[in-house]
């Protein structure tokens, strides 16, 4: 696991990523982007610890101490219409 930023608890293990793209789809702050078939942290300081990426990562590649806020991510995903996401 690598830490995304000193500003939050987000951690990510690229070795576990299966490239589904869900984390990039659900994140309301553009923290993740797909690069070369796997997720990459491109804006680690922007994570607000909503937890949406962790909940939707079936590979357990993401860990974050989340509070509330997943609803915002769900709304974003719904508006884009690309994926069906959950908040656990
Ligand atoms: S949700 Fe998990 S498996 Fe899917 S791209 Fe993101 S880190 Fe990789
Ligand atoms: S916890 Fe929320 S804000 Fe942080 S990277 Fe995951 S989806 Fe984005």
Report what the structure shows.
The structure is a single chain. The protein is α+β, with helices and mostly antiparallel strands and 88 residues long. The chain has a single domain (2-80), classed as Alpha-Beta Plaits. The chain has helices at residues 22-26, 52-56, 70-80; strands spanning 2-3, 11-12, 32-35, 38-41, 62-63. The strands form 2 sheets. The protein has a 3-stranded antiparallel beta sheet with strand order 1-2-5, with no helix packed on it. The longest helix has 11 residues, at 70-80. It is globular. Bound molecules: iron/sulfur cluster (2 copies).
CATH class annotation: Alpha Beta
Small molecules bound in the structure, each named once:
iron/sulfur cluster
Q: Could you tell me the number of beta strands?
A: 5
Q: Helices and strands, in N-to-C order?
A: EEHEEHEH
Look up the CATH topology: Alpha-Beta Plaits
What CATH architecture label applies? 2-Layer Sandwich
Our measurement of the CA-to-CA distance between the termini, rounded to an integer number of angstroms, reads: 22 Å
Structural domain tally: 1
